[in-house]
Amino acid sequence: MTARKPLLDALVSMLTQRDLLVSCLGANARYLPYMTVPCPVFALCDSMGAAVPLALGMALQRPDRHVVVLEGDGSLLMSPNVLATVAAAGPPNLTILLWVNGRYESSGGQALPAVAVDWGALARAAGIRHVAAARDVPGLDEAFARARSAGTPSVIVVEVAFDPAEPIPPYSERPDEIRARFRP
Amino acid sequence: MTGAQQIVAGLEAARVSIAASVPDTWIGRLMETVRRSPHIRAVDVAREEEAVAVACGANLAGGRGAVLIQNAGLLNCGGVLAGLVELYRIPCFFIVSLRGDHRDPVYYHAPKGRVTEETLRAWRLPYAHADRRSDLVAQVKRGAEFCVESRGPFVLLISGEDLA
Fold first, then answer.
1. Quick one: pLDDT band at residue B15, thresholds 50, 70, 90?
2. Which residue of B has its CA nearest to A24?
3. Does A4-181 carry CATH code 3.10.20.30?
4. Under the phi-then-psi rule, with left for phi > 0, alpha for psi from -120 to 50, and beta for the rest, what region is A170?
5. Domain limits at B144?
6. Which of A23, A58, A67, A93 to mutate to test the interface with B (most CBs of B within 10 A)?
7. Residues of B in contact with A59 (CB under 8 A)
8. Which residues of B touch A49 (CB under 8 A)?
9. How many domains does chain B have?
10. Where are the domains of chain A?
11. Tell me: the pLDDT tens digits for A70-122?
12. How far apart are CA A101 and CA A7, in angstroms?
């Protein structure tokens, strides 16, 4: 499995000014302020489970934009129902990247419930028709390009290595700053 | 106009673009009217916390979102209200069916009815009871616009009688 940061770098390099990026709380949200992202970013520092429906609301409101949302496996396990909600609403301009490392990384790296969830099968069972997996940067490049043009909401399951020594930066933006800078 | 039509007219007057909902008997009846609006997109969600986030996403993207749920669902929403709506100061207008008050004949709603308003006050959520005897369109519009002006939540409590 690939470390988180090269995958996040690869994703950001594929974004354009026409995209909107939403991140759940955790490592990705903490890295993003230190990266040059070409599109508006809305990063959560709390509220597990809110990122995907937040992105759904944006996608429905702004069909002229492609909304990319970074979700974690712990967060989605808390609210997998949102997959059915997304499938029912069906916005073609929404791509969900599910970062799977089996850990609640933002709270100290505790393990998720000890079961091997088949995330792709879960998404398909909830009605998501375009589901892909990525284990490395080339795989992510290919999967993301296909998701963009799928014409239906997509889920990409990104398997990422868990490294308890990863130097993840702290949260560096206040919520009011994130809110003020987000101007789609 | 029926009460449901007045509520939807109020949403339209406030330029609400997305109504995210989990139905109960009353909210389901209201959503039937929402679905007939050419101006409002009805979004059926699986849990009430999702409705809050969908409405917030619509607001952040330049539209106006509203949440139509039962009070049982509102009681589910403490985390997302604190960690999203309040923390990021996002407008979020709720229309909530108040089950279990003295007007509700269904006994099993009573425990929710007993705690709803106390919970709203504990969570410091501004709220009002819809008043069918006065201008319901204006009450809805005022509530939705309060959210925009205050950059926060507002809850309008309705009963089944208000939809007639």
1. very high
2. B84
3. no
4. beta
5. 3-163
6. A58
7. 57
8. 49, 53, 80
9. 1
10. 4-181
11. 999 999 999 999 999 999 999 999 999 999 999 998 888 999 999 999 999 99
12. 13
